[in-house]
Specification:
By secondary structure, the protein is α/β, with parallel strands linked by helices. Helices cover 35% and strands 21% of the residues. The relative contact order is 0.13. It binds iron/sulfur cluster (SF4).
Length: 375
């Protein structure tokens, strides 16, 4: 039975920065004009360059990272946008793809977010406005390697859609990827900000994926994000429009009575989206570098992230102990398979041993994962 009721917690258009800083050489970009026209009541300051502002900012705030999100910088990205996904760390099997970073930082405030550590020295909310340079670069690279299938994600150090009603990157990216013969765009989000996507005439070559968790986990660990049902409602609209949609149950957090919570999550997921419309579901457990732990404890004292024991893996990241991870994956995979035997399920950022322990099979090679996501 479908239960597509829109719930509260929507983020559509609610981001209001305290101030906007515009780098001198960015004033004349069309995207700058567009963003500023939507923030006419917010003070705007022109700056020479972002480094100076970051230095000033870091010395004047207590919660540098939290305050950084409230200040939007419009900047120009110099250099090459397209990078190989850095997720392929030692000992891990990674879904092989490329990333472009059009923005830095995120308006949401998840307790487990690695950006709190990664961006601690440059915590401002940055948006790059020279999207024309990105499109030109992508066009050249895709043409240079016509036999390669490119999967390009924009959600490595930001949420791909959270700011899309203010900074409508998708209005440029979707029509561009529609025309590509050897590339797909992957937008990864926790938001429900899909208005621009729904206004596009063509969903070809675009995958939209949602990171989801039980509502109890969202309430406790994913501050500022739309609720589970808002995300799934947005996903159902995109699926109906013809976009390919995927779901990341990631990070799985083993709260007390997690089995019940994740069973409820899987039930709700299938209430909103039929299995035939899900490209894939990925599973990933909570993981972190040791330097992140004190930041989480200080910024999110009420977190339940550290109630269990964690050990470092070959990539230096701490995870739940392997038997516990295996149990969680087996259990949640079982819930998913009860709903659909055909569903494609994979494990993100996991060891070969976990893939084998849970599936009984050797993990896919990068090539096979590429084929899995084939055009
Ligand atoms: S949505 Fe993603 S990028 Fe944003 S705060 Fe949460 S984990 Fe970080």
């Amino acid at each position: 039975m479908s239960n597509k009721t829109k719930t509260s917690g929507s983020t559509q258009s609610i981001y209001q920065p305290d101030a906007v800083f515009v780098e001198q050489n960015c004033r004349n970009f069309p995207l700058t004009e567009e963003i500023l026209s939507r923030l006419s009541h917010v003070p705007v300051y022109e700056i020479q360059d972002i480094e100076q502002l970051e230095t000033q900012f870091k010395t004047s705030q207590n919660d540098v990272f939290g305050e950084g999100k409230k200040n939007l910088v419009l900047s120009r990205f110099n250099g090459s946008f397209l990078k190989k996904c850095p997720g392929a760390s030692p000992g891990m099997v990674c879904c092989n793809y490329y990333v472009v970073n059009l923005a830095k930082n995120c308006i949401f405030d998840c307790s487990y977010c690695f950006l709190q550590d990664f961006l601690n020295n440059n915590p401002l909310q940055v948006a790059y406005v020279n999207i024309e340079d990105l499109l030109q670069e992508l066009e050249e690279v895709f043409a240079q390697f016509p036999d390669r299938a490119f999967r390009v994600g924009t959600g490595e150090i930001t949420d791909s859609l959270a700011l899309d009603s203010l900074i409508p990157y998708s209005n440029s990216l979707v029509p561009f990827f529609n025309k590509q013969k050897n590339a797909v765009l992957e937008l990864k989000t926790k938001s429900d900000c899909v208005e621009n996507l729904l206004d596009q005439p063509d969903p070809t070559n675009v995958i939209v994926s949602w990171s989801i968790n039980p509502q109890q986990v969202i309430d406790l660990e994913e501050k500022g994000t739309p609720g589970l049902e808002s995300r799934l409602h947005a996903a159902s609209l995109c699926a109906e429009k013809g976009y390919r949609v995927g779901f990341h149950l990631d990070p799985i957090i083993l709260i007390p009575e997690w089995e019940e919570a994740y069973r409820g999550l899987v039930d709700t997921l299938f209430d909103f989206i039929p299995a035939s419309q899900m490209e894939w579901v990925s599973l990933g457990s909570f993981r972190y570098r040791s330097s992140l732990k004190p930041i989480i404890k200080s910024r999110h004292p009420e977190t339940l992230l550290f109630t269990g024991e964690h050990l470092p893996g070959k990539d230096g990241k701490f995870r739940y102990l392997r038997p516990l991870r295996n149990k969680a994956y087996e259990t949640i995979r079982g819930f998913l398979q009860e709903k659909s035997k055909e569903l494609s399920i994979y494990f993100c950022m996991e060891t070969k041993e976990v893939w084998e322990g849970v599936t009984g099979k050797t993990p896919r090679s990068d090539e096979k994962l590429d084929a899995f996501f084939d055009l």
